[in-house]
Amino acid sequence: MPPTTAEQPTATVPDPSTPRRRTHPITPLVTGWKLVVGVIAVIAAQNIAQLLNEFTLQRALIGAGLLLAAAIIAIVFSTLSWWFTTYAVDEDGVSLHSGMISRSREYAPRARIESVSVERPLLARLLGLAKVRVEVAGGGESYLDIEYVKSAAAEDLRRGILGIAELAAPDTPGEPATDTAAEAMPPSEPGDQSAQDANAAGAASGRLEQLLTDGVTDGELIAHVPTERLIRSLLRDIGFLIGVVMSIVGVAVAVALAIWQDGINIAMFIALAPAAIAVPKYIFGRIESGWGFVSRITERGLRMRRGLANTRTDNIVSGRIQRIELRRPLLWRGPGWTAATATVAGIDDDSENGAENVLPVGTREELQATLGHLAVPLGTADDTAFIEHLLTAPAREIDGFRTRVRMYWIARRTEVSVLLPGALVKRGGLLTKHIEIVPRERIQQLSVDDGPLNRKLGVLDLQVGIAGETVAVSNLPRRQVLDLHATLSHDAATLRRYRDRQHWPQPALSLAAPAGQSPGPSQPEEQR
Q1: Does a structural domain hold residue 11?
Q2: Are residues 223 and 333 in the same domain?
Q3: Domain that holds residue 229
Q4: 477 φψ region: left (φ > 0), alpha (ψ -120 to 50), beta (else)
Q5: Does the model's pTM come out above 0.90?
Q6: Are 338 and 327 in contact (CB under 8 A)?
Q7: What is the CB neighbour count within 10 angstroms for residue 255?
Q8: Could you tell me if 226 and 371 lie in one domain?
Q9: Could you say which of 343, 376, 409 is where a domain stops?
Q10: Of 133, 239, 288, 527, most Cβ neighbours within 10 A?
Q11: Which of 360, 376, 392 is the last residue of a domain?
Q12: Distance between CA atoms of residues 117 and 111, nearest Å
């Protein structure tokens, strides 16, 4: 559930004198169509055969009239909902009031704001609108949505919220670097047409770049995923290809069974349409989650943009990463590509929008730059070389904890856990290598699982809990698990103290905080 004042009893109460604003007036058109489509889908799914058998022109006109009435009702209700929905941003946080009969008051205090993302669904994007999502520490669905406002206003709102959240000092939106450079050039002579054309081309190029990247043009470029690399990576991903093939086979079998039982008819094809649409939807979702991906490091952390039809921009602040996962499929090892995801408290990832995907498919250099700005130092002589060794070396060549039970023959050859000064690292995977990196100061919960089979085999399982995730270190010798549990318990009891978080290890390449600004809010209890 989104954060509310009832859930945050210690949060500062929003100032009632703060002027409240409404979202864009055409918001009901963007939100109302969902209700109409839902009604049509329910009616069609349950009565499609009967509707086709009893189809007449008169009934078609009646159905069109009912559909029009449903659309009008949906727009009316959406308009009323829009009228009673207001938001406000002040120095204490962000508040959202909604509801016509049952009023809802949601509040995100500035001390708990983790990040702010700007989402542009297809219809809203065509209308020049965007949704602002305020991610709040507390869980996977702890967020507050302001939908919809103009795209330019959404960027200003994002900057303002990040500014009051003390993630960084608010800056004033500036012109793109290309435009600034063009303005800084000395004026050309009236007869120098080539110089004028060059200036105009530079300005047009800057505007085009800002349009294609949704304004993500400021800061040092960390990673950019070309379309060719994205498509090639999907064609080299065995798991993705197997999923697509199995889905196509399943749809083909369903169609064959339907034809064998009832013959070929329109009702059969309409009934199987959702299953047939699922395959291209899955493929398009994988493409869209990495399409046009670009990441830049700014004073507010790592800013990312992704999306084809629906676009999204996110900010992930250095030093707030709870867990990092790296993935390298078998056929990615040749070009040395790696995918990276990050777990951040409060950021919701529904596996379709790729909100936690900080690098869909990157080169070794892009991976090094991304981890350098996000991951805490591991404590090795060369963290980059160590991670590359984990991704390429057999498990037997990695010094760490591994199971000794012969019946777990795959895990014995693929899984190994390493306790480093800065993090607990787990490597696994047969065809696709996975690495999970958990900073030791971010561990929230530890538990040891035991059972009859474990006692017989002389092993234990250790569950390491972080924000919204659990990393399992399984089937290790009992003595090793107990020693590891004692060490990590001490970390959870001491390193994670919020009053000492100014001294938490920071990413090696993270930007220093502006002068006079503390790394975080002064009241640690509000961050829990």
Answers
A1: no
A2: yes
A3: 215-376
A4: beta
A5: no
A6: yes
A7: 16
A8: yes
A9: 376
A10: 133
A11: 376
A12: 17
